[in-house]
TrEMBL record:
Protein name (record): Sugar phosphate isomerase/epimerase
GO molecular function, one term: isomerase activity
The organism of origin for this protein: Paenibacillus xylanilyticus
Keywords attached to this entry: Isomerase
Annotated SUPFAM superfamilies: Xylose isomerase-like
Amino acid sequence: MTLTNKIGVIVDSFGVGVREGLNKAKDVGAEGVQIYAVKGEMDPENLSPAARKELRSYIDSLGLEISALVGDLGGHGFQVKEDNLWKVEKSKRIVDLALDLGTNIVTTHIGIVPHDPASEVYATLHAACEELGQYAKSAGAYFAIETGPETAADLKRFLDTLSTNGVSVNFDPANMVMVTGDDPVQGARLLKDYIVHTHVKDGVRLREVDPRDVYGAVGYAPMDHEKIADMVSSGTFFREVPLGEGSVDFDRYFAALQEIGYTGYLTIEREVGDQPEQDIRKAVEFIKQYR
């Protein structure tokens, strides 16, 4: 097996801001970057057409490209009908920003997809994703749900009910092994028609956990990235670890991505640890072993 996929890095994983993070991504050997675009300097409202053009030019000057933007608005995802009035509109603006910056992929967490399709939360998620999917599809883009909160089987059943593939999948194998206990290899095969972007990270599951305690849900605390970072570093239920040190079988997983014909980015995400640059550099070298 020889991988030909490009290697990406989430700029925010460096924890040093966008511009310095872009330079660090170049320095560690990445070919592309993913950037959070929900607040601060990367909020679509804060980037004028001229600023977007300048940022894209700067990324081009580094020899990088954007693999995707992160459009994760947190909270309960799209499970609350009242919140979706503004969340859907902001998500559309993030899709617009992505296209201006040269990528057609926005990744996010939508909230846990209920196993029961007759539930009110399921209907609320479906309505929001149907609108987002149609918008993305009309623009030649994808709104990509990150794996982990629910099983691959439940996610596929949900995606199959949407009218377009404008809502697709950002496949994260570590989330699956840490939270639901799913096998990423089988998950990749199951979701093969929807995978448009991937995250590369590793982890171990130490004990069973209710996904609602991790990702939030109606009736539970909302999803909080800092809380999740504390959970993956504390090791009570699961732990994120450097590539190759966890439960993701990358030999089989990368082979499965090849088997299903996935040609997109392998984007490194490192959410914990006190030396992210060193960990990300090692992750780049880990992936390059398969080239």
